[in-house]
């Protein structure tokens, strides 16, 4: 398969139709290309099923609402379209990228008068993205940019424009020999990495930053549910960067990453400990359950639809 995402075999669901991959195009004057107003999701296919599909579809619709537009497809219609395009591509494992955007009828800061489009593209992606070649965990550095405050941007939306600083920080980290960057929020508290949430093991419990204007990850919610089943307390609260000194284990989690142990954050060193290992195993069992497409521990996303 070509590494070029434009030049591939297969099918993409586009505005209600299954079209050959290479035929799906957007115009260069599409509003979202110029003003960052696209919203998207990242989903994983396990054993032919999309993990937490309902939660992802509901969050996609909510992201559009936070940017002041509505998707003309219901959550259940997006679910069915996703299943159809995964089946059309013959995938039992892989990644899915649904993306919605406003079109090219108007080009200006205002998008009033544009049509709304939706595409769903799945592709094969075997195994984890968690850098299996690093059994001691990935190396992370602290980012320079911070996540914006609620008076600056709708951080609860998975919107293309909000990922500009994430891309800059990810590239900076890779260029400096790290695997990722850890971002603070507008008040200097721990927030997330460039594309995943963070958990700290501290004193036999898990601590994770309370979601305040950054993405409440669907995998994050799943991890909290798994910890609860093991009887482990999970604290959602403000976490200051100096508390990284107190943690015995640190891991990131997200749809693409799954659960990724962190071996170092700049000069701090961590072990891939028993809590991280247990949750990594539990997660691999969870994603392969026959009922894994539903809301599950992410039931609160149902209220978004």
Task: Summarize the SSE layout with pairings.
Elements: E1 11-14, E2 17-20, H1 31-35, E3 39-40, E4 43-46, E5 49-50, H2 53-66, H3 75-88, E6 93-102, E7 116-123, E8 138-142, H4 164-175, E9 180-184, E10 190-193, E11 197-202, E12 205-209, H5 218-229, E13 234-237, E14 249-254, E15 258-265, E16 268-269, H6 274-286
Parallel strand pairs: 8-9, 8-15, 12-13
Antiparallel strand pairs: 1-2, 1-7, 3-6, 4-5, 4-6, 6-7, 9-10, 11-12, 11-14, 14-15, 15-16
Helix pairs in contact: 2-3
Structure description:
A hairpin with a 2-residue loop joins strand 15 and strand 16. This protein has six helices and 16 strands. Helix 2 (53-66) crosses helix 3 (75-88). The protein has 305 residues and is of the alpha+beta class. The strands form two sheets. Strands 8, 9, 10, 11, 12, 13, 14, 15 and 16 form a nine-stranded mixed β-sheet that branches. The mean pLDDT is 94. The protein has two domains: 11-127, Aminotransferase class 4, branched-chain amino acid transferase, N-terminal domain (D-amino Acid Aminotransferase, Chain A, domain 1, 2-Layer Sandwich), CATH 3.30.470; 138-286, D-amino Acid Aminotransferase, Chain A, domain 2, CATH 3.20.10.10. The longest helix has 14 residues, at 53-66. The radius of gyration is 19 Å and the shape is globular.
């Amino acid at each position: 398969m070509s590494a070029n995402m434009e030049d591939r075999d297969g099918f993409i669901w586009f505005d209600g139709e299954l079209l050959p991959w290479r035929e799906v195009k957007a115009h260069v004057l599409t509003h979202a290309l110029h003003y960052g107003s696209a919203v998207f999701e990242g989903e994983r296919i396990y054993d032919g099923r999309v993990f937490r599909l309902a939660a992802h579809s509901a969050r996609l619709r909510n992201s559009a609402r936070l940017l002041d537009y509505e998707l003309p497809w219901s959550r259940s219609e997006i679910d069915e379209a996703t299943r159809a395009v995964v089946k059309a591509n013959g995938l039992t494992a892989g990644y899915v990228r649904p993306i919605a955007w406003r079109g090219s009828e108007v080009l200006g800061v205002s998008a009033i008068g544009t049509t709304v489009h939706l595409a769903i593209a799945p592709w094969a992606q075997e195994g984890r993205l968690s850098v299996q070649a690093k059994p001691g965990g990935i190396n992370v550095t602290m980012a320079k940019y911070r996540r914006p405050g609620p008076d600056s941007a709708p951080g609860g939306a998975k919107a293309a424009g909000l990922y500009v600083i994430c891309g800059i920080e990810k590239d900076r980290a890779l260029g400096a020999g790290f695997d990722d960057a850890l971002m603070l929020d507008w008040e200097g508290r721990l927030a997330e990495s460039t594309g995943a949430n963070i958990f700290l093991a501290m004193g036999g419990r898990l601590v994770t930053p309370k979601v305040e204007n950054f993405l409440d990850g669907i995998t994050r919610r799943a991890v909290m549910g798994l910890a609860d089943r093991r009887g482990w307390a999970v604290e959602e609260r403000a976490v200051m960067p100096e508390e990284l000194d107190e943690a015995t284990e640190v891991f990131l989690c997200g749809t693409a990453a799954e659960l990724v142990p962190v071996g170092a954050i700049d000069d701090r060193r961590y072990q891939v400990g028993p809590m991280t290992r247990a949750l990594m195993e539990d997660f691999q069992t969870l994603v392969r359950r026959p009922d894994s497409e539903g809301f599950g521990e992410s039931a609160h996303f149902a209220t978004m639809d």
